[in-house]
Amino acid sequence: MLKKRKWIGFFLIAFGLILISIPLYYEWEQEKKLAALEEALSFVSEADETATGIQPIEELPFSEEELKSVVELEIPSIQLKQKVLPETTQDNLSIALTQIKPYQTPGEGNFTIAGHRGYRGDRYFRQLPNVVVGDKALLHAANQTFIYEITSSEVIDPTAVEILQDEEDISEITLITCTVDGKDRIALKGKLINGTN
């Protein structure tokens, strides 16, 4: 009986270690892809006409065209500075923030960005619910910075897609993440107040 209890205890400990290691392995894989993305973006920004491309970078799941469309979102009030990939896919969302409407033009229409809340640290949109009306969101694209002032923050139904639509002659930004329970969405809106070179 004592021997059987030892084996059960050993099995439970091993099973617990496996459960703990799965998310850590997943996070390690995502960190490798994020590092490859950062390296490739650095290479693309420094490349000249004689550059041979980005093929040598390991763990890089993006084309050169996709990399040239990456922008960066900065929200100083929550110390957020994250890359925004040009298209929303499950893989892209696991690495960075993403454009909900693919290949948008910063400063034009309703620039929409989605991001996971993340379960550790401050990556992704974990702190997005702490952004308040009046805070600034900066969108860095190429040699330009577009400054938006947050005008609203609300919890919406996941099917409320009208929040993503463009409105005539209005330049704004929409930032979306899940609520803690994942049932609803937190949506922030901001109006463009300045676009500079």
Summarize the structure.
This protein has helices spanning 2-46, 64-68, 90-95, and strands at 71-75, 80-85, 97-99, 110-114, 136-141, 144-156, 172-178, 185-196.
Quaternary organisation of the protein chains: single chain
The N- and C-terminal alpha carbons lie at a distance of: 75 Å
Strand content: 25-35%
Q: How would you name the CATH homologous superfamily of the largest domain? A: Sortase
The CATH C-level name of the largest domain is: Mainly Beta
**Helix coverage percent of residues?**
25-40%
How many strands appear in the DSSP assignment? 8
The CATH topology of the largest domain, please? Sortase, Chain: A
Class from secondary-structure proportions? alpha+beta
Largest beta-sheet characterization = 8 strands, mixed, barrel
Helix count?
3
Could you say how many structural domains there are in total?
2
Task: Outline the structure in words.
This protein is an alpha+beta fold and 197 residues long. The chain contains three helices and eight strands, in the order H-H-E-E-H-E-E-E-E-E-E. An eight-stranded mixed beta barrel has the order 1-2-3-4-7-8-6-5. The chain starts with a helix and ends with a strand.
Write the layout of secondary structure elements.
Elements: H1 2-46, H2 64-68, E1 71-75, E2 80-85, H3 90-95, E3 97-99, E4 110-114, E5 136-141, E6 144-156, E7 172-178, E8 185-196
Parallel strand pairs: 2-3, 4-7
Antiparallel strand pairs: 1-2, 1-5, 3-4, 5-6, 6-8, 7-8
Give descriptors for this structure.
single chain; Sortase, Chain: A; eight-stranded mixed β-barrel; 8 strands
